[in-house]
Amino acid sequence: MSDEGRRERTFLGDTGAVLKGMATVFKQTFRPDDTEEYPKVIAEIPERAHTGRHLLNRHENGLEKCIGCELCAFACPADAIWVEGEDNDPENPTSPGERYAKDYQINYLRCIMCGLCVEACPTRALTLTSYFEMSYTSREDAILTKEQLLEPPPELGTTPGAKEGL
Amino acid sequence: MDWLDWLLLVARVVIVFFALLISVLLYIWFERKVIADMQTRMGPMRAGPRGLLITLADGIKLFFKEGILPTNADRPVYLIAPVLAMFPGFLAFATIPFGTSITLWGRKLEFQLVDLDIGILWVLAMTSIMVYGVVLAGWSSGSNYPLLGAVRSSAQMISYEVAMGLSLVAVLMYSGHLSFSEIVAAQDRVWNVVPMFPAFVIYLICAIAETNRPPFDLAEAETELVAGFHTEYSGITFAMFFLGEYVATVTVAAIGVTLFLGGWRGPAPDFLPWLWPLLWFLFKVTAVIYVFVLIRATLPRVRYDRLMAFGWKVLIPFGLVWILITGAIVVLPDHLDLDRGTVLTWAAIALGVTLLLSFVPTGRKTHEEATR
């Protein structure tokens, strides 16, 4: 570091610098708080902030959008997705087209919420919601099954345990 | 003394003890809230209204945690060290007048547990004993980091005790008393902080160093020494260190208020004459503690060699010079037929000139530049 631009050190100058710093910190007292009391007050999440649990979507006629192609599982860098595809029953199809997902699981102990699976999905079957209250008491509970993923997530703050200790 | 006197004495001791405990609970909450405000956070909010009971909750948690006794620890010393760290703060507070007096059942009760003739010496003795708690804790843990922390801390506390003693000497020379009640009585016109301002600054800095508070918390230095001397302590013994540290902070603030800021003195209305001095005292102590917290929130931890250099090369010489000046202020009026005010004015002018001279660049390299 060059000596250029360095101020001459004096006793009063240094003391003044300390006092100035203290004044700056003191002024911060009057700034509004940036944090909020999370479980009591849940801040509104931006509408398009997709940073939480996945959702398997359906077509308007009730058929599943997922075609069991496993592209999401290939895209997943954390190896969190398990898909087992099968041919549709032509009489009673689960999804439009040839194939559907017989089994679909996401392990939320592995998932890093990167969204690469959503980008990989050719039919927009897989999307992210902004539901982030995912806490589990066992490893098995953290693996969400196809039935669970087809259901839209509950409201924030309604999970049993979220209000604990209030 | 009949039984009522004894009862009142015991009651006063118990009340002061618990008042100090409760003040520590409130003070820790206060500190956390103030620092949170300065960092645009909320701080503790859950236990009690606005998180007021957070310290109580912490205390209960610590009380029920397991107290671990390391295999290498020197058992009796290890267990007695937290006690040694905790009680000096309480004992020192016993001599501080925190109000005037109240008449109950025909007896005049002073708001001061004991009015020792040697008040200041007692305080210095108690702060010295506090060092024992730290040193013994570090040594008896049978582990390296606590030992390092204890060595650092003892060196720091002993060094700063010298400078603190010097600032107290200036005050007692000026007021001519060792007893706290007399010192407060001598401040009825002007608080000591006006004539003794340099001593007040020295005292504040040393008080922070003496109680191991940031920016002088090298004894604990979480990021370097893993909590320093109390690394091995857990549960109730750790709680005692924690309590001792904060009791010491309250006590040190109270001593500063008594010696420099007029103690319980302050303008008061006519009714309830015993209440207002008490409130004034509380207010002043809170103000001093607020300054401690503000300093903590502002300044980063000092490097260890700079801490020692600052103590020995700046504070102690400065304190010695200030004692000389105080001596002159005290003695000169008798010899020169001047009053203290005139001498103080001249002293202030001399100080101002010195400060102005310090603005003149010396052209010499500073220590850091020379050693970089």
Label the overall shape of chain A: elongated
Low-confidence stretches of chain A: none
Order of helices and strands of chain A: HEHEEHEEH
* Relative helix content of chain A: 10-25%
- In total, the number of strands of chain A is 5
Keywords:
heterodimer; A: 166 residues; two-stranded antiparallel ribbon; 4 helices; 20% helix; B: mainly alpha; two-stranded antiparallel sheet; 2 strands; 68% helix; globular
Task: Please sum up the structure shown.
The complex is a heterodimer of chains A (166) and B (372). Helices cover 20% and strands 14% of the residues of chain A.
Topology:
The complex is a heterodimer of chains A (166) and B (372).
Chain A: H1 11-28, E1 54-56, H2 71-75, E2 81-87, E3 99-107, H3 116-120, E4 126-128, E5 143-144, H4 146-150
Antiparallel strand pairs in A: 1-4, 2-3, 3-5
Chain B: H1 3-38, H2 54-64, H3 75-93, E1 101-104, E2 107-110, H4 119-140, H5 144-175, H6 180-185, H7 197-210, H8 222-225, H9 235-260, H10 275-298, H11 304-336, H12 340-359, H13 367-371
Antiparallel strand pairs in B: 1-2
Helix pairs in contact in B: 1-9, 1-10, 2-9, 3-4, 3-9, 4-5, 5-7, 5-11, 7-9, 7-11, 9-10, 11-12
Could you characterize what this model shows?
The complex is a heterodimer of chains A (166) and B (372). Chain A has 166 residues and is α+β, with helices and mostly antiparallel strands. Chain A has helices at 11-28, 71-75, 116-120, 146-150, and strands spanning 54-56, 81-87, 99-107, 126-128, 143-144. A 3-stranded antiparallel sheet of chain A has the order 2-3-5. The relative contact order of chain A is 0.18. The mean pLDDT of chain A is 85. Chain B is mainly alpha-helical and 372 residues long. Helix content of chain B is 68%, strand content 2%. A two-stranded antiparallel sheet of chain B has the order 1-2. In chain B, helix 3 packs parallel to helix 9 (235-260) and helix 7 runs antiparallel to helix 9 (235-260). Chain B starts with a helix and ends with a helix.
